[in-house]
Amino acid sequence: MPDMEPQPPNWLHWGRKIQAIAQIGLTYAENEWDRGRYQQLHDLAEEIFITHTNAPVDRVREWFTTQPGYATPKVDVRGTCFRDGKVLLVREKSDGRWCLPGGWADVGDMPSEAAVREVLEEAGFGCVARKVIGVFDANRGGQPISAYHAFKVIFLCDLTGGVANPDHEIAEVSFFAREGLPELSANRTGPHHLAECFRHLDDPTRPTAFD
């Protein structure tokens, strides 16, 4: 059974749903009457996010117009590499906290190739993806609020070479034992994600976890 994690607040769930309905409706509406109604829903979703996040109006509008068309979740890919029982983590410059190497998948990426690329670019290590550790709802587990709904795909990878070499977004690269994990960048890698990663290290036959 997957670990039970805190759920996002109701306003966030409702706001995302309203925004998604509005976005899809504005994409496929066949007349101005329908467009007007969907625009009202769009404006309501903006008002919900502005009220609860105190984000600037322009910022919220940017969230809602970045990906026009049918509203779908974004995909975050992460690569998990172990060496001598320790997990490879990178420290983000943006918040000074640690996470598995990874980020948003690019259009045209194969998921496993995206994870391998992120490990190389962020940490400096070559690797090959061996199995999927888990597919998680990235917006649960106490992460910071985001307008986007996202899925997180975590791969177990085998190191093939390289040395620690952080890129421009990463301040530091290191390996950590499960008993000495650093402060985590929760929206990128949560404690429950790393717990599942170590379970797969302990049991190579463990099935893929999913939400």
Specify the overall morphology: elongated
Number of domains: 2
Number of strands: 8
The major beta sheet can be summarized as:
8 strands, mixed
- Based on secondary structure, the structural category is alpha+beta
Mean pLDDT score: 89
C-alpha termini separation: 9 Å
CATH overall fold name of the largest domain = Nucleoside Triphosphate Pyrophosphohydrolase
Helical proportion, percent range: 25-40%
CATH secondary-structure class of the largest domain: Alpha Beta
Seen as an oligomer or otherwise, the chain set is single chain
SSE sequence, one letter per element: HHHEEEEHEEEHE
The low-confidence parts are none
Strand content: 25-35%
Number of helices: 5
Name of the CATH superfamily of the largest domain: Nucleoside Triphosphate Pyrophosphohydrolase
CATH architecture of the largest domain: Alpha-Beta Complex
Query: Using only CA atoms, what is the Rg?
Result: 19 Å
What would you note in describing this structure?
By secondary structure, the chain is of the alpha+beta class. The longest helix has 22 residues, at 32-53. Strand 1 (74-83) and strand 2 (86-92) form a beta hairpin. Helices cover 36% and strands 27% of the residues. Helix 1 (10-28) packs antiparallel against helix 2 (32-53).
